[in-house]
Amino acid sequence: MLRRKPTRLELKLDDTEEFECVKKELEIRKKQRDEVDVVGVATFSNMVGASGGTGDGKTREQMINERIGYKPHPKPNTLPSLFGNMQF
Known about the structure:
GO biological process, one term: regulation of mitotic cell cycle
Shape: elongated
Radius of gyration: 27 Å
Subcellular location: Nucleus
Family: Belongs to the CDC26 family.
Protein name: Anaphase-promoting complex subunit CDC26
Keywords: Cell cycle, Cell division, Coiled coil, Mitosis, Nucleus, Ubl conjugation pathway
Helix content: 55-70%
């Protein structure tokens, strides 16, 4: 089998400028996400400190579900729901 020489890639000025722009955008997004995380942690610790842990009757799981927008809907444990509609 013949071995080929490696291909040489040449970057143009436009390529380097585009790379720098994308890199800056990613850094800005990362900073914003870190700031949101820090604010979120501070807010959560304030909620726990102010409410005394479970003073408002909500569990940690419920607070997290509200924060992320998850609304669980439990299914009823009745016989028709477990076995379907079996009509004889």
